[in-house]
Amino acid sequence: MLDVPFGASKEEITRAYRGLVRVVHPDNFQDPDERAKAEERTKLINAAYNVLSRPAIREEYDRQLRTTVMSDTLMSRYTGNTAGRPAPVRAAPRPPAPHIVRAQRRAYRSAVRQLLVIAAMFAGALLIVSFIVLIFTSAIGQVFG
User: Fold this and answer.
1) DSSP letter at 38?
2) 8 CB contacts (<8 Å, ≥6 apart)?
3) What is the C-alpha separation between 25 and 19, in angstroms, rounded?
4) How far apart are CA 66 and CA 69, in angstroms?
5) Which is the most buried residue in 6, 11, 44, 142, by most CB within 10 A?
6) Same domain, 19 and 74
7) Is residue 85 part of a domain?
8) Which structural domain range is residue 50 located in?
9) Which residues contact 51 (CB under 8 A, 6 or more apart)?
10) Beta carbons within 10 angstroms of residue 55's beta carbon
């Protein structure tokens, strides 16, 4: 918020705070919308200065910041993107070329035909076997009947 380095001294923090407040102070704006935005920004800058200007609170803030930086570093190492930021946008895959689509359709039709032929052959073999069983059972029935 104050744009100061991690190990900034108290003087650097005060200098950065005063410079930012001078720029974004609500009295510098006439437009009500801009003035409201400046008031919110000034509140955030004041809160940041209150944290960084008190040694005990700053120590706790630095501890939390180190923890966050370490976890973000580990997360980025394993996931490939920085925590808190969305993953990089990947381009949508291009549709396949027309000749590839035709080849895929031909292969699909060929596979379906082969399956139908195999199913027909299996059904035919099943009919033949059942016909043979029927003939033998009738022949056996005539011999012993």
Assistant:
1) H
2) 16, 52
3) 10
4) 5
5) 44
6) yes
7) no
8) 10-79
9) 57, 58, 61
10) 9
Tokens of 27: 């009295």
CA 94 to centroid of chain Cα atoms = 20
Count up the domains in the chain and report the number. 2
Instruction: Give CA separation, 24 vs 7, 17, 41, in Å.
Output: 25, 11, 7
Question: Is residue 2 a contact partner of residue 17, using CB atoms and an 8 Å limit?
Answer: yes
Copy the structure tokens of residue 106: 């031909």
Stated pTM of the model: 0.47
How crowded is residue 20: how many other Cβ atoms within 10 Å of its Cβ? 20
For helices 55-79 and 32-53, angle between their N-to-C axes, nearest 10 degrees: 100
Give me the residue label for tokens 């407040």. 21
Domain annotation covers residue 21: yes
- Identity of residue 57: I
pLDDT string in tens for the chain (145-residue length):
667 777 778 888 888 888 888 888 888 888 889 889 888 988 888 888 888 888 888 888 888 888 887 887 777 776 666 656 666 667 788 999 999 999 999 999 999 999 999 999 999 999 999 999 999 988 888 888 6
Nearest to 26 by CA among 13, 14, 40: 40
